[in-house]
Amino acid sequence: MAFWAAAIGRTSPSKVVPVLNPNQKQFLQDEIRYREKMNILARTDAGNLTDYYVRKQETIDDPELLDKHDSFYHTTKSLLVLFQIMGVMPIHRSPPKTNLPRTGYSWTSKQVMWACVVFAVQTTLVVLVLRERVNKFVTNSDKRFDEAIYNVIFISLLFTNFLLPVASWRHGPQVAIFKNMWTNYQLKFLKVTGTPIVFPNLYPLTWGLCIFSWVLSIVINLSQYFLQPDFELWYTLAYYPIIAMLNCFCSLWYINCNAFGTASRALSDSLQTTLKGDKPAQKLTEYRHLWVDLSHMMQQLGRAYSNMYGMYCLVVFFTTIVATYGSFSEIIDHGATYKEVGLFVIVLYCMTLLYIICNEAHYASQSVGLDFQTKLLNVNLTAVDSATQKEVEMFLVAIAKNPPIMNLDGYANINRELITSNISFMATYLVVLLQFKITEQRAVRSQQTLTAL
């Protein structure tokens, strides 16, 4: 092409610079450094080779060593065991063998068999309670509207039990992948930084949340037994594990987000220490790999628990709308009573769970993404060598191309925006429903006026 252009008196076209993604840039940089390293070794004056870092090959870690440094598993084991006992997530810890993942999931494991037994017993109770509540809801047409709303809410909660195999068990392999990513990441972090990830107060916090989840479930169900005249005591046997499961889901999300923030701060502190040293380019490359792994783990969290938390958000959304509409409707018709206060308590409970999930996801994403990016942008590039400058630039590109977003497998992003969007949707539906209610009241009053005349 250049010879043809020169022959006809034209300038040769300029080269088109390809656009590379972070992995391609990383591979290209490693190839260039490897070639430079080989050229230096071919000369007699080899000199100092510390500037020519070549990516290390992945090695298979000793399972005993993985167990020893798996602090996240040991500190959160109580919640994992509670999920196994409740039959919610029957994953298991594999024996320490080479080439065998430390956490696994199998449809023929004893954990899955136990979950099937628990599900069968719980489903039997749910069917009995559901039949009783539906019969009372259909036959007693002279009940107050707020009592009907209570029935609708607690009937809808019973249906979450039937979604458990689809929403939870089906994603067991993805949950096992997420747990194994944490196990491998902690040992890799120790090898790169020389210090382990420490999760302060996570062990007592996990135990406390396990106990609190069941205590709160018992309190909620017993309060409904005393507040509702048709809520019999044996009904609570079906609702105890359902409400406790919702509380445990919120606890699990809080613990994982807290762990992501702790790991990000530990990596950030090591990064700051490394940047103060001499020629930190080699370590920056390894830190970039650690950060990308951390971002991928956050994405895997949403993928592994997508169905469970999708169901969770739907239950919260439906319950909040029904309870809010029922309370306002009864206040318009008969004035405020203690039953309406109970409905507002249900609304507050649901919105609190949603706020905790969205707020913790926001802080985790900010800690891993924005805070890390800010610290890299504050690095004085004029005070470091050219290799370090390239690594900082590649680190920033990796953060931009791999945003730490918690996404429910494409259904929704878990962040603070989800709270505002849910509130706006609920407000829209409530306005429409209340308009129908007011129109109905006006029609009734007009009919009564015509009858009196």
From TrEMBL:
It comes from the Eukaryota. The keyword Chloroplast does not apply. The chain crosses the membrane at residues 112-130, 150-169, 205-227, 233-255, 309-329, 341-358. InterPro entries: 7TM_chemorcpt (IPR013604). It is a multi-pass membrane protein. Keywords: Cell membrane, Membrane, Receptor, Transducer, Transmembrane, Transmembrane helix. One of its GO terms (biological process) is signal transduction. Its main location: membrane. One of its GO terms (cellular component) is dendrite. Coiled coil: none annotated. Pfam families: 7tm_7. Belongs to the insect chemoreceptor superfamily. Gustatory receptor (GR) family. Gustatory receptor which mediates acceptance or avoidance behavior, depending on its substrates. This is Gustatory receptor.
